[in-house]
Amino acid sequence: MENFALLFQGFATAFSPVNLLAALAGAFMGIVVGAMPGIGSLAGCSLLLPLTFKMNPTTGIIMLAGVYYGNMYGGAFSAILLNIPGDAPAVMTALDGYAMTKKRKAGKALLAANLASFIGGTIGILILTALAPTLAAVGLKFGPAEMVSLLLLAFCSIGWMMGDDPKYGLISTCIGALLAMIGMDPVNGQLRFSGGNINLYSGLTFIPVVIGMFGFAQVIEMVTNRQNFSFLGGEKLTIKGSLLTKEEVKGVLPNAIRSGFMGTFIGILPGAGATIASFISYMTGKKVSKKGKEFGEGVVEGIACSEAANNSAAAGAFAPLLSLGLPGSGTAAVLLGGLLMWGLQPGPQLFTNQSDFCWGLIASMYIGNVICVLIAVAVIPFLTKILKVPAGIMAPIVMTLCVVGAYAANNNIFDVYVMIISGFAGYYLNKNKYPIAPLLLAFVLTSTLEQQMSQAFRVNGGSASIFFTRPISLGFLIAMVLMIVVPMITKKVSAKKAAEKTE
Q1: Which of 110, 148, 302, 383 would you call most buried, defined as having the most Cβ atoms within 10 angstroms of its Cβ?
Q2: What is the pLDDT of residues 442-484, one digit of tens each?
Q3: Is residue 334 within 8 Å of residue 45, measured between CB atoms?
Q4: What does the pLDDT look like over 141-153, one tens digit per residue?
Q5: For the chain, what is the radius of gyration of the CA atoms?
Q6: Please, which pLDDT band fits residue 421 given cuts at 50, 70 and 90?
Q7: Calpha distance 501→256 (Å, rounded)
Q8: Could you tell me the sign of the dihedral formed by the alpha carbons of 337, 341, 347, 353, in that order?
Q9: Distance CA 208, CA 66 (A)
Q10: Which helix (H) or strand (E) holds 191?
C-alpha cells in the first residue's frame, strides 16, 4: 500500500501542465511512429532523445515513455488495415486483424485492438506500481539456461500455428530458422550463408522481412488479382459501427487479461521484449481460448492476445530498467541512455533518492495510457478514407510504404532488396498454403536461442547439466515434454473411444 500512496504523490508531478503536455505529445508521436512501417519505438525514441537534452529529467522521460507505449497502439493500425505491421510486435495482430478487415469488420478489429491494448497496458502499469523491485529480482533469476528452456517451449508451441497440414508448417519453420542463421555465428564468429556480401554479415533484419512477406506480398496480390481485389467495398467506419457486441467483449476480456500478465512477465526478461511477448501470448491464446482453432481466420480473441501482451511488456520493461539499470529491449536501452544523460543512476536506490522522478514517471504512464486509447478510438472514423481508395491506387501507395519502411529500418538500400525478395517469397508461400506465422516466429526465436544457448554452455563449461539442475529451467523443460506428449495421448484415447463406439 505504501507504493500506491507514493503513486498518488506522483500524480501531483504528472498532472503539472508541462508534464501533462509531454505525456500527450509523446503518446501522439508514439501512435504516429507506430503506424508508420519500419520505424518502430527504437528509432522513434532515438530520434526524440536529443530533443529532451535540455528538458527536466522527469518531463523528458515522460515524453520518451509516451513514445514507447504509444507505439504499441499505433502498430496495430497499418497491421489491421493494410496487412503491414507498423512494428515487429504487431506481426501477430496482422494475422487476425487483416482477416477481419477482409470480412468488413475493420472497425471492430481496431476497437478490439485498442481495448486490449488499454487492458494490457493498465495491467502492466499496476504490476509495475506494486512490484517493481520484486519484478526486477525475478528477472535476474532468468539466466541463459532459463531463457533457452523458455524459447524451446515457444518453439514447441509453433505446432499450434501450423494449420491442418503440419508438414507445411514444419517447412515454414525450417525456412525461418535457416534465414535466422544467415550472418556471423555468435559463438565462433564464423560467417554463414553470407555469400561474401558485407550486408549479410550481421544477418537479415526482421523488419524488411516482415514488411515484404506481409505488405509487399499484398501488393503483388493486388496487381495479379486486381479484378477481384477489394479492401472493403466502401465500408464506412464509425464509432457506432465499430462497437463490439457483448459476445465479442467476452472474447476480448479473458484473453487480454491473461496476455497482460504474461506480457508483463516476459517484458522484464533480458532480451525478450514486446515482440516475443506477443508471439508467446498469441500461441498460448490459440491453445487455451474457446476460439483457438479460429485464430488466424479473423477473431477478436487473437487480436486481444497480441495487443495486450505487447503493451504490458512495454510497461514491464521499466521494472528492471529503473530498479537495476538493466534494459530488457533496444528501446529500454535508449531510455537508459537518457537516464544516464540526465545524471540519474538506475538501481535499488533510485526509488528512494529520486522518488518524485520514479513515481511521477509511473503516474504519467496511467495518464498516457488513457490518452493513447482516446486518440486511437477517435481516429477510427477517419481511417475510412484509407479503405475507400481503389486497389489500383492503393497498390503504389502500399508499395511506397513498404519501400520507405524497409529502408528506414537501417537506412540501407539492401534492406529494400530483402523486402522485395521476401515479398515474392511470401506471395508464393501464401498461394501454396504455407503459413507465414511459423516462419516469422522461428526467425525471431532462432537467433536469440542460439545466443542464449552458447552462453549457457560457456557458463557451465560445455555441460548440458545446467538446463536440468536449475529449477526454473527444469520446469520449462517438463512443460515442453508435457506439451508434446499430452496431445499424443489425448489423440490416441479419443481414437480408441471412437473405435469402441463404432463397434
Answers
A1: 302
A2: 887 888 788 888 888 888 888 888 888 888 888 888 888 887 7
A3: yes
A4: 777 888 888 888 7
A5: 22
A6: very high
A7: 40
A8: negative
A9: 25
A10: strand 191-192
